[in-house]
Amino acid sequence: MNRLLVLARHGQSEWNLKNLFTGWKDPGLTQRGVEEAREAGRRLRAMGVQFDVAFTSVLSRAQRTCELILEEIGQPGLRTIRDQALNERDYGDLSGLNKDDARARWGEEQVHVWRRSYDVSPPGGESLKDTVARVLPYYVREILPRVMRGERVLVAAHGNSLRALVMVLDGLTPETIPSMELATGIPLVYSLNADTTVADKKVLEG
Ligand SMILES: O=C(O)[C@H](O)COP(=O)(O)O
């Protein structure tokens, strides 16, 4: 595939399992999360995918997912660039709270708006719009030039930092982004055109 860009959300984390808002907190992967990351790697291996460089956040669940994918495709230790710009959306004051407890306290609708709307920030945290505002410049400056030069790029990151990227790549709008969910451990395989638009997208589901 030409101009290959693969996006992978980390596998299940300890706090995903406990149903806690996580954001910039740093829990590790669960055993299931490790297996999801390995499965993502196996799916990429089955397509014959190899990378020239990997990007991840400064959070361990994404870094470990990145390592596990690289191990599964036979490229352990591939050059990996870690940057805070790819971190999960900062959930601010919600970080560490149980999502069901938050629904009981603030109502289903309000919690859904904080989690999935484009421009409403959770208290003390980042909206998706804020997340786009840090992820997109990093993508344009550091990731996209490599893809355009023909380097095959893996980005192992988070539900909302990747939703920010997918919003831009897929041309989603503030109206259509709320229904877009990214599953843990299912890689999105993009091939880009010379003008940086998407030529092809595959969702590597089971
Ligand atoms: O930070 C978190 O809690 C999760 O990684 C993503 O949460 P969300 O499903 O509420 O966006």
Q: What descriptive keywords fit this protein?
A:
7 helices; 14% strand; Rossmann fold; 206 residues; six-stranded mixed sheet; alpha/beta; globular; binds 3-phosphoglyceric acid
Summed up, what is this model?
It contains 7 helices and 6 strands, in the order βααβαβαααβαββ. The protein is an alpha/beta fold and 206 residues long.
Describe the overall structure:
The protein contains seven helices and six strands. It has a single domain, classed as Rossmann fold, CATH 3.40.50. The protein is globular and about 50 Å long. It is α/β, with parallel strands linked by helices. Helix 2 packs across helix 3, helix 4 (99-106) crosses helix 5 (108-116) and helix 6 (128-148) crosses helix 7. Bound molecules: 3-phosphoglyceric acid. Residues 21-23, 88, 91, 115, 158-160 line the site of 3-phosphoglyceric acid (3PG). Its EC number is 5.4.2.11.
The dominant shape is globular
Mean pLDDT: 97
Residues in β-strands, percent: 5-15%
Distance between the termini: 21 Å
Question: Biggest sheet, in brief?
Answer: 6 strands, mixed
What is the CATH class name?
Alpha Beta
- Share of helix, binned: 25-40%
Q: Remind me, CATH topology?
A: Rossmann fold
Count of the domains: 1
Strand order of the largest sheet: 3-2-4-1-5-6
Series of secondary-structure elements, N-terminal to C-terminal: EHHEHEHHHEHEE
Radius of gyration: 16 Å
Protein name: 2,3-bisphosphoglycerate-dependent phosphoglycerate mutase
Catalytic activity: (2R)-2-phosphoglycerate = (2R)-3-phosphoglycerate
EC number: 5.4.2.11
Family: Belongs to the phosphoglycerate mutase family. BPG-dependent PGAM subfamily.
